[in-house]
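Re-run with default settings, no changes from the original entry. Doing this only to confirm the output is reproducible before filing.
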Amino acid sequence: MFNWLWDVFKFRRGRLRSDAPHIERVALHNSYQLGAPLSTHTARVYERSPWVYIAINRIAEAGALVPLNVYRLERERRVSIENHPLEQLLGNPNPLTSRFELFEQTLGSLELHGNAYWYLAGDAQGRPREIWVLRPDRVTIVPDERRVVGGYLYEIDGQHIPLDAIEVLHFRRWHPNNDFYGLSAVTAARSAVQSDRHMADWNRNAFGQDNGVPAGIVNIHDFISDTDFERIKREWRNSYGGTARKTAFLRGGAIEWQHIGLSHSDLDFLQGRRAQRDEILNIFGIPVALVSENATEANAKVAERLFIERTLYPKLVRIAQKITQELLPFYGDNLVAEFDDIRPTDTQARLAEIRTAYPLLSINELRARYFQLPPVAWGDVAVSSHPPHNPPLNLPPKHQGETSAGKSAAENELAQWERFALNRLDKAEGSRPFEVTALPDELAFEVSAGLLFARDREGVKSVFAGARTGLG
């Protein structure tokens, strides 16, 4: 065996091949079979399992709210393109679907089936004009020996509609045992979903029609005639059958009721359903504290942060990179699609980073990097040249001739801001920012920068004292 392997590898190429030799075998191994490989079983699970419904809806609806932006790459810089044609298309993908519905269906299909498909209808220039979401259970991939994917077939009412590979965007999750189709979370959660479903059915049957009384045996110790036996059965069913729960009263000491069923307490019913709920939600990446009635505010905030960072944001990155790879080339080169980075930031770490960069960066650099603000004419100087407690006095000409009324409004706003900042010292992080309307932009920025370093009341007062000096 090792001899023939040695013969295979003894001629070293010394460079990369121009093709992928395994693609042909992959195509032959996954030869096309008529009919979509996905069943409608997962759709029924979504309809019947409350926890699957909750988990998928949380992911799909939260993801559909996040804006998608298009950037142009210029060397190492990314330049935002306002109102890019792709953004316009996503805002109105087709006459029947809104932007929210487009991404809701896409994210929901990925969770439910492990696959999501967009069909692209083109205009006269060959660019996408409409986007239609295809049902994954109706789509079949046709392998190709050279292109990996030769095309797709969309099956409906026994008709197979061929779709070219360039017309379809295929989003998929990783599947360890399949070269073309993704693995859904529902498949991984099948056992937990079935167990929860069976428990729910048992609970419903226990309180359903003719099941109001737990299972048991009416034991008649003495021998009785057939006529009396039938009479007792008839009277028992008339008195204690049906949907109403009733207590049985038996006359005579020779008849005994023996309970043989298990109650909800015996089965630890509620705890069992909670365990199934937790397992299902964990498979979908939904922290239990997001839906638990016993979660504290602190637990809920941590759960929301984990959900955004470890569940929702990676799913958005998957979609954005697929759009970049297969959809944006219709509009030109060096274009990148990215969703807004919705991951919560560590306030203390961010503040420490700003404090470290404060002496080194200019005002415009600080504005762009940490506050996503546009540059200003007075922001090319280093921040360190204007300490927070002594804002610059050389205001632009438009402020030199400020009227007494305007100056009075600025002073009043400065006093309001000072009271706001003093009150906020004792409050938790994340309070709303002060809204500036009358103060000059450069002075407002200097006050904001100074407040980053103010740790006590004296520090806050020092910042505003310097601001009043700068206001003149």
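The CA atoms of residues 32 and 210 lie 51 Å apart. The chain is about 45% helix and 15% strand.
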